[in-house]
Amino acid sequence: VVPAGSTVPTLPEVRSELADLPAAHRPRRLLAIAAIPMLASGKPDREAARRIARDRAAKEGRTGSAAGEGRTEAAAGEGRTEAAAGSG
User: What DSSP letter does each residue of 15-82 carry, written as one string?
Assistant: First the structure.
């Protein structure tokens, strides 16, 4: 999710919007980041997003599945996202 303008949705708002999708189409993780990492080809860099999730989890003292290998949710600031990268 990349919001238009300066209005940034909260993680619960994003989850609410995704609730209408079939479970198989919903992202397993939501990660609040400033920008979606991109490959030179212009595609999203999912491995870079995973590294960001693992680094953030380690910084917050989480390990194992909470370190980016399971259903991690990381929020910046007060639970607001600037961009969210998902399934992978």
Answer: HHHHTTS-GGGS-S-EEE-SS--B-TTSSB-HHHHHHHHHHHHHHTT--GGGGTTSS-EE-BTTTB-S
